[in-house]
Amino acid sequence: MKDLQVLPLPDFFRQHLSGDRLLASLLIIVLTAAGLWLLRWALNVLAARFSRQRLLISGLYPVLRLLCWISAVAYILFVIIHPPLNTLLAVSASAGLALGLGAQDLIRNIVAGVLILFERPFHIGDMIQVGEHYGEVVNIGLRSVQIRTFEDSVVTFPNALVQTQAVSNANAGQLNEMVVVRFHLPADVPVGPVKELAWEAAACSPYVHLGKPIAVLIEDRFDYRFSTRFTIKAYVHEIRLERILASDILERVKKALQEQGLAAPMIGKVTTCGQQPGQPA
């Protein structure tokens, strides 16, 4: 077998990219981009119409986008350009060497992005926490992952960072997730009535998912004075409403405590099952 000569990229383009081939390649790229735009629009319409399957439908787009671009590049390379095998191997060696030396971070992020797409530790629409940031996954690309926080900020993480950090997923592809609401009362408060009204406050909320259990836990604590911490654990039926559920439960608890003449609660941290205690919401 003859030794392969590394063909410079400019010579490769001059030999194998005529005007017609270049125009056909650009047309394939434009059609692929337009098709992906229509695909995303159609999936968004389906996700809005079939809300119970929203996360499943939205999660199809990143994988389909990757497959479409791989197919487009393969068609351009093997059908339109169709270089000899030796030339293709030589150009691949040149491109691989250039990318390996000058774009190590980019390659690392792309490899991590492919792993994320196929391992699927989270999907579009999941509520995840990466470091100090918590929010809904709005995009999974080959280079980065984007989440939207409850302050309506979009935070972008390189895929390599997401792949090497611990990622907490609050709902794991489900529309419901656990919301934890904590409040404190003086240690001498009657526990039974407070637990009952706390349970009713969660059960009566229009945002709670009654298909899963509601729990009220108590714990004695000392912070300058003795107090009892009440923890309400309930599931919200739509992950985007988790803060509204927590607010509604607290409002109902405060109203019930006032009606029964009990002490006003000292409100504690509101978290979801995917957040780490002490981390910002």
Overview of the structural elements:
This protein has 3 domains: 94 residues; 43 residues, SH3 type barrels, CATH 2.30.30; 96 residues, Alpha-Beta Plaits (2-Layer Sandwich). The N and C termini lie far apart (62 Å). The strands form 2 sheets. It has a 5-stranded antiparallel sheet. Helix 2 packs antiparallel against helix 4 and helix 8 packs across helix 9. Helix content is 49%, strand content 22%. It contains 9 helices and 9 strands. It has 281 residues and is α+β, with helices and mostly antiparallel strands. GO terms for molecular function: mechanosensitive monoatomic ion channel activity.
Give the helix/strand layout.
Layout: H1 9-16, H2 19-49, H3 54-58, H4 60-81, H5 85-102, H6 104-119, E1 127-130, E2 133-140, E3 144-148, E4 154-158, H7 159-164, E5 167-169, E6 177-186, H8 191-203, E7 215-222, E8 226-236, H9 242-259, E9 266-272
**Helix content percent band:** 40-55%
- Any idea of the CATH topology of the largest domain? Alpha-Beta Plaits
Distance between the termini: 62 Å
- Helix/strand-derived class? alpha+beta
What is the 3D form? Answer: elongated
Tell me the name of the CATH class of the largest domain: Alpha Beta
Q: Pick out the low-confidence regions.
A: 1-7
The structural domain count equals 3
Radius of gyration: 27 Å
Biggest sheet: strands side by side, in what order?
4-3-2-1-5
Short key terms for the protein model shown above:
alpha+beta; 49% helix; SH3 type barrels; Alpha-Beta Plaits; 9 helices; 281 residues
TL;DR of this structure?
With 281 residues, this protein is of the alpha+beta class.
